[in-house]
From TrEMBL:
Keywords: Membrane, Transmembrane, Transmembrane helix
Protein name: Uncharacterized protein
Listed transmembrane segments: 6-23, 30-49, 61-80, 100-123, 143-159, 179-201
Top-rank taxon, per record: Bacteria
Organism: Neisseria sicca ATCC 29256
UniProt keyword Transmembrane helix, yes or no: yes
């Protein structure tokens, strides 16, 4: 039953929390762009997979991070600037948690794409039959994995900047962004490897 599915419950919680925070912060371009992306993916999917995908199906709901990441172009357009004196990047100081969320979304996505490209060029076709389904599972079929990794990254970013650097978590150095991407790359590689092993056992 879908209402007892851990991934579905995680998707609902993720969506309610972050869509709610974005709406409350009155970042309506980000909010509505995410909704439009969901509608677009649902409608397009219903044409490609009639009866299996659409607005009334749960499938499109399983990738809220996809919609929120690409729609965050509005967040970065209006709330992202470089500090002239330090060279650090600064997001919206009024909403440090949302700033960390937006940055972690982008870094997680860049790491995911990097892994997919590296695997495509390095592994033989037979191995891709295991690794690409594992990546799909990480991103869309078992999104709870993705959410956990993202929350870990957000916690590290937030605590580092707040507790160690004694600055707003909405401020990011170039080194922090590079290390964040590397952190996401390592975490996703480890989880993907575990999923590949799980698929191989079946």
């Amino acid at each position: 039953m879908i209402w007892t599915n851990l991934d579905f419950l995680a998707v609902v919680a993720y969506g309610l929390v972050f869509f709610g925070l974005i709406f409350r912060a009155e970042m309506f371009q980000w909010f509505w762009a995410s909704v439009v992306l969901w509608l677009g993916v649902s409608i397009l999917g219903s044409q490609l997979l009639p009866g299996m995908w659409g607005i009334t199906h749960v499938g499109p709901l399983f990738v809220p991070h996809f919609y929120l990441t690409f729609a965050s172009v509005f967040f970065f357009a209006f709330h992202w600037k470089k500090q002239a004196d330090t060279g650090f990047w600064q997001a919206d100081l009024r909403y440090p948690f949302l700033s960390v969320f937006a940055v972690s979304n982008v870094l997680m996505t860049l790491a995911f794409v990097s892994i997919a490209v590296i695997l495509y060029f390095l592994l033989p076709g037979r191995s891709l039959a295991f690794t690409f389904p594992a990546l799909l599972k990480l991103y869309a079929l078992k999104p709870v994995y993705w959410f956990i990794l993202q929350l870990v990254m957000m916690a590290v970013f937030y605590l580092h900047r707040r507790s160690i650097a004694k600055q707003s978590p909405a401020v990011f150095s170039k080194a922090q962004l590079r290390l964040g991407w590397l952190m996401a790359l390592v975490m996703q590689t480890l989880v993907t490897g575990a999923i590949v092993g799980e698929i191989g056992l079946h």
